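Minutes, project check-in

Agenda point 3 was the complex the collaborators sent over. CS summarized: two entities, 944 residues total, and the question is how they sit relative to each other. Sequences were read into the notes so everyone works from the same version.
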Amino acid sequence: MTAELDLAARVVELVRAAAPDGEAEAFVDTTALALTRFANSMIHQNVADETTSVRLRLHRDGRTTALSTTRTGTEALDDLVARAVAATAVAPADPGWPGLAAPAGLDGDSTVDDAIVAATPADRAERVRAFVDGAGGLTTAGYCQTRHTRAAFANSAGQAVAGATTDASMDGIARTGTSDGSARLASAYLAGIDGAVLGARAAAKARAGTDPVELPPGRYEVVLEPTAVGDVLEALAVMGFGGKALYEKRSFLSPGTDQFDQSVSLVDDPVGTGAIGLPFDLEGTPRHAMELVTAGRTVTAVYDRRTAALAGTRSTGHAIGGPFGAIPVNLALVRSADGDSKRPAESDGSAETDGPAADASVAALVAKVGRGVLVTDHWYTRVLDTRTLVMTGLTRNGVWMIEDGEVTRPLRNFRFTQSYPRALAPGAVLGIGTHAVTLPSKWSLSGFRAPALHLASWNFTGGASG
Amino acid sequence: MSEFDTAAAAVEAAIAVGARYADARVMHRRTESMNARNGEIEDLGQAEDAGLGVRALVGSGWGFYAVPDPSPAAAREAGAEAAAIAAASALVAGAPVDLLSATPVTDSWSSECVVDPLSVPLSEKGDLLVNVTAAMHRAGGDQSEGRYQVWDTRKWFVSSEGHRIDQHIRECGGGISTTVIGEDETQRRSYPSYRGQFGTRGWELIRELDLAAHGERIVDEARALLTAPACPAGATTVIIGGEQMALQIHESVGHAIELDRILGWEAAFAGTSWLDLAQLGSMRYGSPLMNIVIDPRIPGALGSFGYDDEGTAAGPRDAVRDGVWVGVLAGRDSASVAGLDYAGSVRSDGWSRLPMVRMTNVGLEPGPHTLDEMIAATDDGILMDFNRSWSIDDKRLNFQFGCEIGWQIRNGRRGRMLRNPTYTGIGPTFWQSMDMLSSETIAWGTPNCGKGQPGQTGHTGHPAAPARFADVRVGVHG
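CS then shared the predicted structure for the full assembly.
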């Protein structure tokens, strides 16, 4: 039994003693997170913490409360349970309570890398040093992060599971006086993060982007690099594939319908080798690989227990807590042609190119464009309407004109206003890169995996000057 | 062992292993939130977190380490660990880091609070949200939501220079919204703002909002928006309502004047700023009507405090005066780098996060007009308010905002409703076109300002009033 599972079981036992008729679940996680930030080519912020959090959800007499604490001593846990019992007694009625997860085994384990578990500030600083040196004298900024999470869940219905996961990530830019270039990568393994390769890649982009010119706004054929596609996947996940949004008719999603180009499949896989994330969710439901879109046809949304009960289906193991509902946090876009593998090969150093394209896979897509735009990254994207998933945002970290299959000149950043599902609609996807990149998420234990995309049209609605 | 003693133990340990400066915060925070939808409680959560964060400066390298609920021994270990992390920073070192000099302070400060929000019975809070969202749903609001959030934070700050400051800050806020589902799109209306109103106040803030009195009105407006004409595309005179102006200030002024961004410290993530320190004091930011003040002393505003998280006392400072850029949001290290003689805007999102430059209250001083006067003085234009979407580039120049609702203005009168109003522009061009500004100021609270890695959520305040802008591009759609 892990320390976290022992703690979760103790909390459930305390509830059983204090409120025998209550339904209780406890989720415990201990996360050791360390992040080294650099700017102006020096480390300027360097932080670490290791925190254990206990979340207790109690349902009793038709009422539900969720309490959490970072205090884990005996008195603190007694106090947590006492407060939960007291709060539940006076909480408003909860007619939508879906009940507890039944006992069920896990479908797989997450990846734990011993090198990440043992990583030191010097390990992270060495990767930063390599990034800075790899950029060959350009000004650099970014971060290197390592994280080790151990978690456990127990409930009064007998479910008890534990797991752990690790991830390392690096995200940095290199800058000239008139351009930025970026490189970004996440991995379940520390060895997967090579600062020198990433620094060189960011610098190559920055150098290829100097003195950009402005192109008139309009609809252009585009090649979106994996870093930009990662933003598209995140928007689809957060605002499209949540079962609550679908139930409430706020989502564009229509299961059983050919909503995407037939070359596109979307998979959520938290338990495959190298995946980042825990093998169970906040409600103790085991997570497993799911196809959300198969060859362009929408299959399903994802659910936690409450939204599944509303929709008349079962939880898919995507509970994240709070009122937002479930979201798929390990979404990957795969080429339908990849068949059973569902996971295109990761990019590696051997696929790198010297020019603005992130790798040889991107360059191959660029070669098929008559006249279009190569986009490295999206920035500050926000939804205008959830039903159509029209998003606005900007390009960042490198944009180039493509003419007759060649990158011809750097461009200034655009603002775009674009429906993401429409950009991926049947007939709109002209090519998918053969390599995918796991990208660090800004906000949770997750890893979106994205290849480059060649799309027929992207609606650029403004230039750098307005 | 008191909280001050715990913090002092961490600081002393950091100094003992070689740090030339250290500070520590012991923090204890209790939060509560409730969400209701269509007459049912969706989520009720209470959280408590307690711990210690210690920051150490070794040579020119910073290190930060945090531990939950520490014993004295754990506090000392945390101090030593922060110093060790700082030493590792020297592997990729830069220019020397100094801190703006500060006089040690011993003080205690609390925000004003009439009704302790954590003492109000959950049943009363639940009834409020259940009843108002049920009424909205009955009135035709397909997804009608109500929510509140409460934060109760106590913190004890100790520095190696002799600071000993404790603060107790209570924050509270909430609001309602409804989304109606049309054939091809959704429409949303909210009250009193898209996320609610928040302040360093007690439950009296929620009671003053009188949520029940506004539920059916916003449902009616949302349903009307489904069939309203779309905001036309083009360039026109725009009057921005006070709630949207708060976000306009936050995004296109507040973030742009953060000194860490100006110095390039946030270049890879949050971004930089279009502002150049060489032009501080001379660069025209906006029209002469534009006076932006940084003031963390405003009673009840969400960005208020007694001292920031490195011990600098709250005080007012001009950021823009008569349209000219004159001030920044700064911390002790960034001010020293920039050669400035003031700090006071460093805050952390809890004990486990590094203090960094953050907005406090950044707002517009009132103007000479009223909203009615602005409408009456406009022959042809659009009034829009209540934020629906926001996006701005990494230099805080190129922005595009969507609002929940708009109205055509013709011949000095408010006309028909417009759906999906959007406007876009370039910060200084936009602000220089401001030709009328209302005196009807409200200090809006923004409880969700994201910055930093690991991510931190900041609470900021923005005094704002309706304002009129000329020749603004509107009606950008996908």
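Noted in discussion: DSSP finds ten helices and 23 strands in chain B.
Follow-up: revisit at the next meeting once the mutant set is ready.
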